[in-house]
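Quick start: read one record
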Amino acid sequence: MKTSTILTVGLAASLFACSQKKETDQTGEVVETETKELNLPAPYETESVTRFSNVIGWPEGKTPQAPQGFTVTEFARDMKSPRWVYVAPNGDIFVAEANTERKGVKKKVESIVSGRNKSEHTTESANRITIFRDTNKDGKPDQREVFLENLDQPFGMLVLNNSFYVANTGGVWQYPYQAGQMKMTTAGKKILDLPVGGYNNHWTRNLLASPDGKKIYVSVGSGSNVGEHGEANEVRRANIIQINPDGTGEKIYASGLRNPVGMDWQPSTNTLYTAVNERDELGDDLVPDYMTSVKEGGFYGWPYSYYGQNVDPRRKGEHPELVQKAIVPDVPLGSHTASLGLTFYDADQFPAKYKNGAFVGQHGSWNRSTFSGYKVVFVPFENGKPGKPEDFLTGFVTGKDKEVYGRPVGVTVAPDGALLVADDAADRIWRIVANK
């Protein structure tokens, strides 16, 4: 394992050439992104509010709402926190069932007092992967099995070169795999250790292969909100790591990404994009989550600054040489939206406007006086450039006090061109198709 700290990672990233804009702090700032002029309020312009949602589940017959011309149906139910969905090359659909764990009496009490326990699964994680297969191609799975169990908060999944990869919170595992098998019966091996411990909010580790299959990218979230536990706690965190398929050749591909979760390649440009969950406790409208292209060697600001050179007051005066190099992300997605899921639409079942655009699953806010997120948004692309996000799948918020029916997170495109959306809080997978 590497022993470099976030400082050394950042110093390496500082070699990446970016603008030399002066750092700013304490006042509002206008930032130019790829999609719009973004007006950032000053830190603490509004107080930091804790407001967890209360998940009540979906009444029978009720579904989320898609735009006119689309139909939403239930693909699967009766899981425990279906967080992430992966489609294998042969069309099999894998779902990782896992959740944040609040271990210890103190954390359990805090979860109850804050209301977090009503907003998400906080009990023991299921720690399994379930496989679904639609043999008659009617859009409903007719085969379902537990594919792999007794894992450690599994999230990212990948099939590559006759191997099945799983990103547990503490490392990447590789298993021998043959297309079509319904259960993993062979022991795997850990090919990469990943940092764990302490702050369990950012336990997810995602996986993505390069287009040529020669590299694997691993996303790892920070070990804190804004580095408050010290740099030693952030070793190899808040990064996207690149490895060889056997786990060797590790390098930090990009850094300063507080919690990069969804990753995918934009189809028309083969550019890597990620969805990032930004920092909390600076007020209602700071800091916007984002989707951004990922530049090799790029540094994106965390924890010292955000959206370029806007200094976080809690890290004021620290590493100005890194702040000067911080890259402005491409697409703001709203503050505290918990923008986690990301997939590009490369199929043909949807209307032409959706081709090569991105869907982002927004898990929803807890640190805002009024809710944000709790929906799936669509980011159109034209000539390889992103446009402004627009709502696609809504209806998760009931409109009654803190009540929500569910919380969307993982998104992916099924073999038939349908969009699949994981609703981990309500234990459902939703399927969206365009009407023909």
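The first helix runs from residue 6 to 13.
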